[in-house]
Amino acid sequence: MASAKESICLLLFAFLQYTVKGQDPIPKDWPLQFHAVLFINRSGSLQKTDLWYDWPNGRNFNIIQHQLGDLKYDLEWDNGTSFYYTLQPFNQTCKLIRFDVGILRPNWLHGANYLGQRYVDNFLCNVWEKLHFIRYYEHVLTQTPVQWIFSSGMIAHVMTFEVGAVLEDEKWQAPVYCFGETQAETQNKTSMPLLDSEASALARFHGMFMRDTPHPAYAFPK
Ligand SMILES: *[C@@H]1O[C@H](CO)[C@@H](O)[C@H](O)[C@H]1NC(C)=O
Ligand SMILES: *[C@@H]1O[C@H](CO)[C@@H](O)[C@H](O)[C@H]1NC(C)=O
Ligand SMILES: *[C@@H]1O[C@H](CO)[C@@H](O)[C@H](O)[C@H]1NC(C)=O
Ligand SMILES: *[C@@H]1O[C@H](CO)[C@@H](O)[C@H](O)[C@H]1NC(C)=O
Known about the structure:
The chain is α+β, with helices and mostly antiparallel strands. It is about 15% helix and about 40% strand. The protein has helices at about 1-20, 185, 195-205, and strands at about 35-40, 45-55, 60-65, 70-75, 80-85, 95-100, 115-120, 125-130, 135-140, 145-150, 155-165, 190. The protein has a 12-stranded mixed β-sheet. One 2-acetamido-2-deoxy-beta-D-glucopyranose (NAG) binds near residues 79 and 81. Keywords: Signal. InterPro entries: At4g14100-like (IPR038941).
């Protein structure tokens, strides 16, 4: 059976990689472009998120379906501007927020602290923690992310991960009501003076700023 042999080879390879170098494994950089479907549990409220990461074009998109609820768009540009909006048939709302930081770099996991291996969602994973803010689980055999948990307790389960997938340009256009005069009122420059730029970029990616900065008392699940 080829697949069993392949698995054994991969396992051996992973094992040798680990033992020969005698060093902690390093998380794989994010592909420059990918599409992932995430199931997210945020304190018991569930959402399905389409994540479109597009580094060469300096943009990142979270399209968030709340369970039996609204479909929300969180469009982030590397120049610091984020648009949060809803489209018909939901109310047409838009909030524009300016950050001092861009989107996550493909190598944002560099310098993460290795915590060992664990089974999550039935996959054997290498685990890292970055800045006490996120715990990241990567499949040992394929180096694909399986799950990440923010220190807020928000858990993202990676359901699909399509390397190289790109969302068409037209879809990255915020609606016209994001650019109206009234929008000026909600514009605000969001800086997180307590966090360095790396942590700020992570907080921006997390999609909760200010009200949900990392809580030191939160304990990651064992
Ligand atoms: C979501 O997380 C909460 C804890 O915050 C937990 O009680 C609940 O069982 C989780 N729901 C699912 C579907 O995983
Ligand atoms: C950032 O880029 C987006 C998309 O091109 C644009 O709508 C927005 O106004 C830009 N923000 C700044 C601060 O230049
Ligand atoms: C949408 O707009 C209507 C009418 O203004 C309002 O009654 C309703 O609460 C709004 N719904 C949401 C989810 O904001
Ligand atoms: C903008 O930021 C300031 C300072 O953080 C805050 O007091 C103000 O309420 C914010 N305005 C809006 C519209 O969010």
